[in-house]
Amino acid sequence: MVTLMDLIFGNDEMPMDQRPLQEIGVQYSLHQEQLHRVMELYLDAMLKGLQENVRYGGLDALMDALARNKSAEFLKYPHQIIESKAIDNGNYILGHILKEKDVSRDLATSVSRRTGIEQDTLEIVLPITATLLMGRLGLYIDDVESSQQHDTLLDILQIEEGTSLREMILQKQKELYEAGH
To answer: Structural domain tally of the chain?
Structure first.
């Protein structure tokens, strides 16, 4: 199963372009281990936010956002991932995932305490991480057969098969589909 960390850093079966990560590391003076730890903590929080959104009927909204995938544009030219447009895009994404700006600040504070990295730096790296995540997630989902995209996304979001949550989401999707036809 592919995880959010796999989408950001890649793995043996799924290599990822490391240039955006290198740009972030150089721009914010973060070693690869530091960047890995920061993104691991951020992605854990984003995963919980995405799971909450999906729980309340946001799977189609997430699929629509991925289909429009403005974030993927920042991956075409890796130096763009650290530019203000990518940061603004990431803040927009965080507004949907984490809901409140205070949650983002609190997350950066927590990660700063856990890693020893300056909070100011982490407040900028957080929206960059969101842009990188949505860009890579969208590109990954685009490569999946359309009939399998919902299941693949639920797998990535670690919403287990056979759980009442997954069944509830799939039932809601089916009802919405049938109501539209």
So the answer is: 1
